[in-house]
Specification:
The protein is an alpha/beta fold and 250 residues long. It contains eight helices and seven strands; from the N terminus they run E-H-E-H-E-H-E-H-E-H-E-H-H-H-E. Strands 3-2-1-4-5-6-7 form a seven-stranded parallel sheet, with helices on both faces. The chain is globular and about 50 Å long.
Amino acid sequence: MNTLAGKVALITGASRGIGRAIAERFAQDGAAVVINCSSSLAGAEEVANGIKALGGSAVILQADIGDVAQVRKLIKDTVSQLGQLDILVNNASIIDPIKPAVEVTEEEYDKAFGINTRGTFFAMQEAAKVLPEGGRIINISTMATTLGMANHAMYVAGKSAVDQLTLVMATELGHRHITVNSVSPGPTDTSMLSHLFEENPDGMEAMFLQRSPMGRIGKPEDIADVVAFLASDDARWVTGQNLRADGGVR
């Protein structure tokens, strides 16, 4: 179904993992997608070429989400190249540093918050200036915000801030019928999760599997389907919410 036909969607960090799955799902639903990447240009080209091979529309725009000037230019370039912006998905993030909070440096703090929180905020701010009535903003958060995971202070704190910014922006933009929501994936089969397992080799993967009622790790497509719902007209009455897409992991 072309539920997003005529829409333009920008997905940050869309060259792989969850961002890639979202871009591919949006394209299947009829949207013209903007694939943002910082440095993984080859991956972004692979995603774009795959979408075009199936008859979809995709363009690539490079930008470092940790750089506010580049974030602002990304939004402006999206509108200048495609004529509009209807859906923003803030997916780009980093999980590092993975270390005890007492060991985190100022530089690591600034980098983590710069990408995970500041970049997301200014992307929302800039998008809010151009989104039409009924536009959509969807922020990718994490179930880790409810777990108090040791050695992940920066990631958890940054994403917790995103959840609060989601609620505030939903309140401020509601009069324009723009919905703002966040999605909190559970363990999902991505390079970020592989990195997490490498940094925590003491049975973390087995623990997640044990805590999953469905007995498996999530797939990027599992998350993309939830995001596609929030982007659709079916979710017009859902705003200021955090949807846990974690397969029941607790």
